[in-house]
């Protein structure tokens, strides 16, 4: 599964501080079981837009990672600044059987 968290850095906010916060969040997530890969990016046209993408073995692995103490302490404060939009995606390959097209209730 793929997670896309987008952020808009408020005008006047320190880019260096935000980048350090985002790096810490990514490193903390990367240390969790089920993490496969991830990266931080910044928009080419609008430098105030940033993204953290991560790949996970499963939605369960991602949700379990979010509930760990380390993630709650070091990553959630930064993740909570993400734009308010859906962030979890299933990866679609040529022969993928897709999930049903409705919101999941948890």
Please name the defining characteristics of this protein.
4 helices, ABM_dom, alpha+beta, Alpha-Beta Plaits, 106 residues, monooxygenase, four-stranded antiparallel sheet, oxidoreductase
Structure, described:
There is one protein chain. The chain is an alpha+beta fold and 106 residues long. The radius of gyration is 15 Å and the shape is globular. The protein contains four helices and four strands. A hairpin with a 6-residue loop joins strand 2 (35-42) and strand 3 (49-56). It has one domain (2-89): Alpha-Beta Plaits, CATH 3.30.70. The protein has a four-stranded antiparallel β-sheet with strand order 2-3-1-4.
Helix fraction, binned, reads: 25-40%
Q: Report the uncertain regions.
A: none
Average pLDDT over all residues: 92
Please tell me what the overall shape is.
globular
- Order of strands, main sheet, comes to 2-3-1-4
- Percent of residues in beta strands? 15-25%
Number of DSSP-assigned strands = 4
Rg, rounded, reads 15 Å
Protein name: Antibiotic biosynthesis monooxygenase
GO molecular function, one term: monooxygenase activity
Domain ABM: 1-92
Pfam families: ABM
Brief summary:
The chain is of the alpha+beta class and about 110 residues long. The protein has helices at about 15-30, 60-65, 70-75, 75-80, and strands spanning about 1-10, 35-40, 50-55, 90. It contains 4 helices and 4 strands; from the N terminus they run βαββαααβ.
């Amino acid at each position: 599964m793929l997670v896309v968290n987008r952020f808009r850095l408020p005008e006047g906010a320190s880019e260096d501080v935000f980048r350090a916060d985002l790096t810490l969040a990514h490193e903390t997530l990367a240390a969790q079981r089920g993490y496969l890969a991830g990266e931080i990016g910044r928009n080419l046209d609008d430098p105030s837009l940033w993204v953290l993408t991560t790949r996970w073995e499963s939605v369960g692995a991602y949700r379990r990672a979010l509930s760990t103490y380390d993630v709650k302490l070091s990553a959630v404060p930064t993740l909570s600044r993400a734009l308010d939009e859906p962030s979890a995606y299933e990866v679609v390959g040529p022969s993928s059987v897709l999930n049903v097209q409705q919101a999941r209730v948890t």
